[in-house]
Amino acid sequence: MARPRPLRSALASEAGGGDEALNELAGQMRELVMAMAKDQPSGIKVPRIVEFAVAAVPGAQHAAISMIRGSEKPETISATDDLPLQVDAIQYELNEGPCVQALIRSDLVWSDDLSNDDQWPRFGPRAAQATGIRSMASYRLFLTEDQRGSLNLYSAKPQAFDTLSRGVGALFAAYASLTLLNDIHQNKAMQLERALESNREIGIAMGILMARHLCTTEQAFGMLRSASQHTNRKLRDIATDVQRTGSLPDLRTPR
Question: How many Cα neighbours within 13 Å face the side chain of 217?
Protein backbone atom coordinates (compact mmCIF):
# COMPACT_ATOMS: atom_id res chain seq x y z
CA MET A 1 0.00 0.00 0.00
CA ALA A 2 1.26 3.44 -0.89
CA ARG A 3 1.99 5.82 1.95
CA PRO A 4 -0.37 8.81 2.11
CA ARG A 5 0.99 12.06 0.68
CA PRO A 6 1.21 14.88 3.28
CA LEU A 7 -0.65 18.12 2.75
CA ARG A 8 1.62 20.73 1.22
CA SER A 9 3.23 23.16 3.65
CA ALA A 10 2.09 26.06 1.43
CA LEU A 11 -1.20 25.87 3.28
CA ALA A 12 0.49 27.34 6.29
CA SER A 13 1.30 30.51 4.32
CA GLU A 14 -1.21 33.28 3.81
CA ALA A 15 0.66 34.64 0.81
CA GLY A 16 -2.00 33.36 -1.58
CA GLY A 17 -4.90 34.84 0.39
CA GLY A 18 -7.39 33.21 2.73
CA ASP A 19 -9.82 32.00 0.05
CA GLU A 20 -7.07 30.47 -2.06
CA ALA A 21 -5.58 28.70 0.95
CA LEU A 22 -8.99 27.34 1.95
CA ASN A 23 -9.68 26.15 -1.59
CA GLU A 24 -6.32 24.41 -1.70
CA LEU A 25 -6.99 22.83 1.67
CA ALA A 26 -10.41 21.60 0.56
CA GLY A 27 -8.93 20.17 -2.62
CA GLN A 28 -6.17 18.33 -0.83
CA MET A 29 -8.52 16.96 1.80
CA ARG A 30 -10.69 15.68 -1.04
CA GLU A 31 -7.65 14.03 -2.62
CA LEU A 32 -6.77 12.49 0.73
CA VAL A 33 -10.24 11.01 1.24
CA MET A 34 -10.32 9.71 -2.34
CA ALA A 35 -6.92 8.11 -1.82
CA MET A 36 -8.20 6.42 1.31
CA ALA A 37 -11.24 5.07 -0.51
CA LYS A 38 -9.16 3.92 -3.49
CA ASP A 39 -6.61 2.33 -1.19
CA GLN A 40 -9.24 0.13 0.46
CA PRO A 41 -12.51 0.14 -1.50
CA SER A 42 -14.07 -2.45 0.80
CA GLY A 43 -13.83 -0.04 3.71
CA ILE A 44 -11.15 2.07 5.36
CA LYS A 45 -9.47 0.18 8.17
CA VAL A 46 -8.56 1.80 11.48
CA PRO A 47 -4.77 1.48 11.02
CA ARG A 48 -4.99 3.47 7.80
CA ILE A 49 -6.92 6.26 9.55
CA VAL A 50 -3.99 7.06 11.81
CA GLU A 51 -1.54 6.91 8.91
CA PHE A 52 -3.61 9.36 6.91
CA ALA A 53 -4.07 11.58 9.98
CA VAL A 54 -0.31 12.18 10.06
CA ALA A 55 -0.44 13.05 6.37
CA ALA A 56 -3.48 15.29 6.77
CA VAL A 57 -2.50 17.44 9.73
CA PRO A 58 0.52 19.77 9.37
CA GLY A 59 2.94 19.29 12.26
CA ALA A 60 1.77 15.79 13.19
CA GLN A 61 4.52 13.17 13.45
CA HIS A 62 2.54 10.38 15.10
CA ALA A 63 -1.14 9.55 15.53
CA ALA A 64 -3.33 7.13 17.46
CA ILE A 65 -6.96 6.42 18.25
CA SER A 66 -8.13 5.82 21.81
CA MET A 67 -11.46 4.26 22.70
CA ILE A 68 -13.45 3.64 25.83
CA ARG A 69 -16.40 1.25 25.97
CA GLY A 70 -18.95 1.78 28.70
CA SER A 71 -17.26 1.78 32.09
CA GLU A 72 -14.15 -0.04 30.84
CA LYS A 73 -10.72 1.52 30.93
CA PRO A 74 -9.57 3.41 27.80
CA GLU A 75 -7.34 1.64 25.32
CA THR A 76 -5.36 2.59 22.23
CA ILE A 77 -6.85 0.59 19.37
CA SER A 78 -4.45 1.77 16.67
CA ALA A 79 -1.25 3.79 16.40
CA THR A 80 1.28 4.71 13.74
CA ASP A 81 4.12 3.29 15.87
CA ASP A 82 5.07 2.41 19.45
CA LEU A 83 5.63 5.96 20.67
CA PRO A 84 1.92 6.91 20.96
CA LEU A 85 1.36 3.70 22.90
CA GLN A 86 3.99 4.80 25.43
CA VAL A 87 2.44 8.26 25.77
CA ASP A 88 -1.07 6.85 26.10
CA ALA A 89 -0.01 4.31 28.70
CA ILE A 90 1.14 7.18 30.93
CA GLN A 91 -2.17 8.98 30.39
CA TYR A 92 -4.20 5.90 31.29
CA GLU A 93 -2.07 5.24 34.36
CA LEU A 94 -2.43 8.79 35.70
CA ASN A 95 -5.96 9.30 34.35
CA GLU A 96 -5.00 12.67 32.91
CA GLY A 97 -3.80 14.04 29.60
CA PRO A 98 -5.21 15.29 26.30
CA CYS A 99 -6.73 12.04 25.08
CA VAL A 100 -8.28 11.22 28.47
CA GLN A 101 -9.82 14.68 28.59
CA ALA A 102 -11.11 14.38 25.01
CA LEU A 103 -12.67 11.01 25.81
CA ILE A 104 -14.48 12.38 28.85
CA ARG A 105 -15.51 15.97 28.33
CA SER A 106 -13.76 18.07 25.66
CA ASP A 107 -14.13 18.21 21.87
CA LEU A 108 -10.59 19.49 21.31
CA VAL A 109 -7.63 19.52 23.69
CA TRP A 110 -4.07 20.51 22.87
CA SER A 111 -0.76 21.33 24.47
CA ASP A 112 1.95 23.53 22.98
CA ASP A 113 4.57 22.11 25.33
CA LEU A 114 3.89 19.18 27.62
CA SER A 115 7.08 19.74 29.57
CA ASN A 116 5.65 22.83 31.28
CA ASP A 117 1.89 22.59 30.70
CA ASP A 118 0.01 23.05 33.98
CA GLN A 119 -3.16 21.48 32.49
CA TRP A 120 -1.71 18.08 33.38
CA PRO A 121 1.00 18.61 36.00
CA ARG A 122 1.74 14.92 36.45
CA PHE A 123 1.34 13.65 32.89
CA GLY A 124 2.98 16.46 30.91
CA PRO A 125 6.53 16.52 32.34
CA ARG A 126 6.66 12.74 32.68
CA ALA A 127 5.54 12.13 29.09
CA ALA A 128 7.94 14.74 27.71
CA GLN A 129 10.88 13.27 29.60
CA ALA A 130 10.06 9.61 28.93
CA THR A 131 9.04 9.83 25.27
CA GLY A 132 10.33 13.16 23.92
CA ILE A 133 6.83 14.24 22.87
CA ARG A 134 6.29 17.95 23.40
CA SER A 135 3.05 18.77 21.54
CA MET A 136 -0.29 16.95 21.48
CA ALA A 137 -3.75 17.53 20.09
CA SER A 138 -6.73 15.27 20.82
CA TYR A 139 -10.17 15.37 19.20
CA ARG A 140 -13.29 13.70 20.49
CA LEU A 141 -14.77 11.20 18.03
CA PHE A 142 -18.55 11.00 18.23
CA LEU A 143 -19.46 7.31 18.04
CA THR A 144 -22.22 5.65 20.09
CA GLU A 145 -23.71 6.10 23.54
CA ASP A 146 -21.51 3.39 25.04
CA GLN A 147 -18.44 3.89 22.86
CA ARG A 148 -16.34 7.05 22.85
CA GLY A 149 -13.17 7.73 20.95
CA SER A 150 -10.44 10.29 20.42
CA LEU A 151 -8.03 10.98 17.60
CA ASN A 152 -4.64 11.88 19.07
CA LEU A 153 -1.80 13.67 17.32
CA TYR A 154 1.77 13.88 18.64
CA SER A 155 4.93 15.81 17.81
CA ALA A 156 8.40 16.07 19.28
CA LYS A 157 8.39 19.79 18.44
CA PRO A 158 6.88 22.35 20.82
CA GLN A 159 4.01 24.46 19.43
CA ALA A 160 3.59 22.01 16.56
CA PHE A 161 -0.16 22.47 16.19
CA ASP A 162 -1.08 26.02 15.26
CA THR A 163 -4.54 27.31 14.35
CA LEU A 164 -4.33 25.86 10.85
CA SER A 165 -3.20 22.45 12.10
CA ARG A 166 -5.99 22.30 14.67
CA GLY A 167 -8.53 23.24 12.00
CA VAL A 168 -7.32 20.56 9.61
CA GLY A 169 -7.30 18.10 12.49
CA ALA A 170 -10.94 18.90 13.25
CA LEU A 171 -11.89 18.21 9.62
CA PHE A 172 -10.05 14.91 9.63
CA ALA A 173 -11.47 13.92 13.04
CA ALA A 174 -14.99 14.34 11.63
CA TYR A 175 -14.12 11.98 8.78
CA ALA A 176 -12.47 9.55 11.19
CA SER A 177 -15.68 9.52 13.27
CA LEU A 178 -17.75 8.57 10.23
CA THR A 179 -15.28 5.86 9.26
CA LEU A 180 -15.25 4.34 12.74
CA LEU A 181 -19.05 4.51 12.97
CA ASN A 182 -19.28 2.62 9.69
CA ASP A 183 -16.85 0.03 11.04
CA ILE A 184 -18.89 -0.34 14.24
CA HIS A 185 -22.12 -0.78 12.28
CA GLN A 186 -20.53 -3.35 9.98
CA ASN A 187 -19.33 -5.34 13.00
CA LYS A 188 -22.79 -5.21 14.56
CA ALA A 189 -24.35 -6.35 11.28
CA MET A 190 -21.91 -9.27 11.08
CA GLN A 191 -22.66 -10.25 14.68
CA LEU A 192 -26.39 -10.10 14.00
CA GLU A 193 -25.97 -12.18 10.85
CA ARG A 194 -23.98 -14.80 12.78
CA ALA A 195 -26.59 -14.85 15.54
CA LEU A 196 -29.41 -15.34 13.03
CA GLU A 197 -27.46 -18.09 11.28
CA SER A 198 -26.80 -19.79 14.62
CA ASN A 199 -30.48 -19.60 15.56
CA ARG A 200 -31.42 -21.11 12.20
CA GLU A 201 -28.99 -23.99 12.71
CA ILE A 202 -30.35 -24.66 16.20
CA GLY A 203 -33.96 -24.45 14.96
CA ILE A 204 -33.32 -27.04 12.24
CA ALA A 205 -31.61 -29.38 14.71
CA MET A 206 -34.52 -29.04 17.13
CA GLY A 207 -36.93 -29.97 14.32
CA ILE A 208 -34.89 -33.10 13.56
CA LEU A 209 -34.88 -34.15 17.21
CA MET A 210 -38.61 -33.44 17.59
CA ALA A 211 -39.39 -35.68 14.60
CA ARG A 212 -36.98 -38.41 15.69
CA HIS A 213 -37.99 -38.55 19.37
CA LEU A 214 -41.57 -37.24 19.12
CA CYS A 215 -40.82 -34.60 21.75
CA THR A 216 -41.68 -30.94 22.36
CA THR A 217 -39.59 -27.92 21.43
CA GLU A 218 -38.54 -27.51 25.07
CA GLN A 219 -37.41 -31.13 25.26
CA ALA A 220 -35.51 -30.89 21.97
CA PHE A 221 -33.71 -27.76 23.10
CA GLY A 222 -32.94 -29.45 26.42
CA MET A 223 -31.30 -32.32 24.52
CA LEU A 224 -29.10 -29.89 22.59
CA ARG A 225 -28.16 -27.98 25.71
CA SER A 226 -27.36 -31.14 27.64
CA ALA A 227 -25.16 -32.39 24.80
CA SER A 228 -23.40 -29.02 24.65
CA GLN A 229 -22.63 -29.06 28.37
CA HIS A 230 -21.59 -32.72 28.41
CA THR A 231 -19.19 -32.40 25.48
CA ASN A 232 -18.05 -28.87 26.34
CA ARG A 233 -18.89 -27.67 22.84
CA LYS A 234 -20.91 -24.76 21.55
CA LEU A 235 -24.63 -25.24 21.08
CA ARG A 236 -24.35 -24.34 17.40
CA ASP A 237 -21.68 -27.02 16.84
CA ILE A 238 -23.96 -29.65 18.38
CA ALA A 239 -26.78 -28.44 16.11
CA THR A 240 -24.53 -28.81 13.08
CA ASP A 241 -23.74 -32.41 14.08
CA VAL A 242 -27.44 -33.17 14.40
CA GLN A 243 -28.10 -31.78 10.93
CA ARG A 244 -25.27 -33.84 9.46
CA THR A 245 -25.94 -37.15 11.25
CA GLY A 246 -29.59 -36.91 12.25
CA SER A 247 -28.81 -37.62 15.89
CA LEU A 248 -27.03 -36.22 18.94
CA PRO A 249 -23.33 -36.97 19.45
CA ASP A 250 -22.36 -39.89 21.65
CA LEU A 251 -22.43 -38.63 25.24
CA ARG A 252 -20.84 -41.64 26.85
CA THR A 253 -17.31 -40.26 26.42
CA PRO A 254 -17.15 -36.54 27.20
CA ARG A 255 -14.64 -34.50 25.24
Answer: 3
CA–CA distance, 26 with 34 (Å, rounded to integer) = 12
Segment 179-185 long-range contacts (CB within 8 Å, at least 24 positions apart): 179/44, 179/46, 179/49, 180/46, 180/49, 180/65, 180/141, 180/143, 180/149, 181/143, 181/144, 182/43, 183/43, 183/45, 183/46, 184/143, 184/144, 184/147
pTM of the model: 0.64
- Name the range with the highest mean pLDDT among 158-162, 204-208, 248-252: 158-162
What does the pLDDT look like over 132-184, one tens digit per residue?
999 999 999 887 777 888 999 999 999 999 988 888 888 888 878 877 776 66
User: CA 88 from chain center: how many Å?
Assistant: 15
Domains recognised in the chain with CATH numbers: 16-185 (3.30.450.40), 190-245 (1.10.10.10)
